[in-house]
Amino acid sequence: MTLLLAGFWPGLAGAGLLGLVVGALAGWPDRYAVPLGLFVLSGLLAAAAIAGFVPGLPGLWLETAALILPPYGAGCILGALGRRLVTRS
């Protein structure tokens, strides 16, 4: 996983920036079922990546997705909170 972090840091930064833009454009969700479902799905994805169920190239894809998803989610949350703070003022 450390090798992935060192090799894919531009993708991680891009995912964070993309999440920031998407969160700012979409805003905070009205219903919490979809974000909660995505949170559970990302947890299952991370658990499968850590357990190493999938070997080879598909395993690399799984680990990469599990590594890139949290910065994207954090960017979405920060963008939505920023939009909420700007619209309240």
Give structural notes.
The chain has one domain (18-88). The protein is mainly α. It has helices at 2-7, 9-26, 33-51, 56-88. Helix content is 85%, strand content 0%.
SSE arrangement:
Elements: H1 2-7, H2 9-26, H3 33-51, H4 56-88
Search tags:
89 residues; mainly alpha; membrane; 85% helix
Q: How many strands in all?
A: 0
Quaternary structure annotation: single chain
Low-confidence stretches: none
Please, how many helices?
Answer: 4
Strand content: under 5%
The class by helix and strand makeup works out as mainly alpha
Q: Mind summarizing the main beta sheet?
A: none
Average pLDDT for all residues: 88
Instruction: Kindly report how far apart the N and C termini lie.
Output: 42 Å
The shape, in one word, is flat
Q: What is the gyration radius calculated from CA atoms?
A: 15 Å
What share of residues is helical?
over 70%
Tally of separate domains: 1
Element order: H for helix, E for strand = HHHH
Summarize the structure.
It contains four helices and no strands. The protein is flat, with a radius of gyration of 15 Å.
